[in-house]
Amino acid sequence: MTEHFDVAIIGAGMAGASLAAECAPHARVLLVEAEDAPGYHTTGRSAAFWEEAYGGPGVLPLTEASGRFLREGGFLSPRGALNIGREEDRTKVEAFVERFAPLGVTVELLEGAALAARVPGLSPAWCVAAWEPDCADIDVAGLHQHYLAVAARIGSVLRVRARIEHIEREGEAWRIAWRDGEARAGRVVNAAGAWADTVASLAGAAPLGIRPLRRTVVQLRTEPVPPADLPLTLGINEDFYFKPQGGRLWLSPHDETPDVARDAAAEELDVAIAIDRMNHVVDWKVEAVERRWAGLRSFAPDRLPIYGFDPAVDGFFWFAGQGGFGIQTAPAAARLGAQLLLGLGSDALTARIDPAAYAPSRFTAAA
Ligand SMILES: Cc1cc2nc3c(=O)[nH]c(=O)nc-3n(C[C@H](O)[C@H](O)[C@H](O)COP(=O)(O)OP(=O)(O)OC[C@H]3O[C@@H](n4cnc5c(N)ncnc54)[C@H](O)[C@@H]3O)c2cc1C
Fold first, then answer.
1. Rounded alpha-carbon distances, angstroms, from residue 263 to 7, 90, 189, 214
2. 200 lines ligand 1 (CB under 6 A)
């Protein structure tokens, strides 16, 4: 017998799971995931930080609002971030401070001994930084599990190994079907990450140009062992970042290689580039590359997320384009998404967020 739901959410990464939890008190929700387990793709591959400026001013209201939720829920632990540069980058570092401080981000210029003390072994060439003390590590798995558990407790249904292959309108409802099952729902949500445009096409909605960009991370064993309180250290020119993780170093070349929706893997060249860049920043010896992975960060053409009903296809809701900030923005994004999807009013979490900035209609309106 075909089950009926108010809402069917396609994709159970951070986006789909968090939205399911926010919708569950108000609606009967189905969450469908193609893989064996939720979180297999981008959500399971993040660098797990909350950094206020990351994603730029357009993402900031979502990050800020989510920060309060994450802190109170115990999902954050202090880290701090340094956006570092050389003398020739000084103007850029200063511009970073001038851009974000007036927006309410706690950020200040750091240089000389104060900077060197935070990154032992830092090459003296890296002499100036924008210091964000509020940056934090996020317990990504904990947050994802929290949302899945909340959704399940309130009665949402999760189907895994259910790659949606058909989405069609049947009167007032949608019929969605996977290899060995189907369901009906009043509204369908596209939370399919790198597959968002593919899923839109299945429903007869025009793709919005969401592009998966590959990002690589390597886990290194180094000598010396990175101190536990080492800040997240990002190149001001966006060409590397690293942070400590359980006595190891997580390092990324900050790559954004255009890719296709798939199970992405790290490429040797990107691993080598990452290590080469790190070697110009600190004098640590790389003893082993213990792990390497890559994930797809999916961006809309303007690099802002997309939340809202498709302007042309009735009952089809976008919750996509979470780029490189889909974890740190998840709480506010999911609350906003549920409010837009179910016609609920805004609340303290979303009061300072303008949903128009993220509406899918911004693309069609501009066309
Ligand atoms: C290396 C790296 C570092 C990052 N670091 C950070 C960070 O520090 N902080 C931060 O906030 N963000 C970070 N991000 C970004 C963050 O991970 C993403 O924004 C977020 O995980 C996106 O979640 P999602 O649910 O949209 O996508 P996903 O986790 O990819 O979930 C989408 C799901 O949809 C499923 N799906 C697709 N098609 C179908 C279908 N037809 N039927 C059923 N299911 C389908 C997929 O199987 C997948 O599980 C990072 C990303 C990467 C790659």
1. 27, 39, 22, 11
2. no
Q: Which domains does the chain have, with CATH numbers?
A: 3-44+140-210+301-366 (3.50.50.60), 81-133+211-299 (3.30.9.10)
Q: CA triplet 145, 148, 79: central angle to 5 degrees?
A: 35
Ligand 1: which residue has its CA nearest to atom 20?
326
Q: Pick from 10, 19, 41 the residue to mutate for probing ligand 1's pocket: most ligand atoms within 8 Å of its CB.
A: 41
Contacts of 69 (CB under 8 A, 6+ apart): 331, 332, 349
pLDDT tens, residue by residue, 26-39: 999 999 999 999 99
pLDDT tens, residue by residue, 334-361? 999 999 999 999 999 999 999 999 999 9
C-alpha 60/C-alpha 64 separation (Å) is 6
Q: Look up residue 122 and give its DSSP letter.
A: B
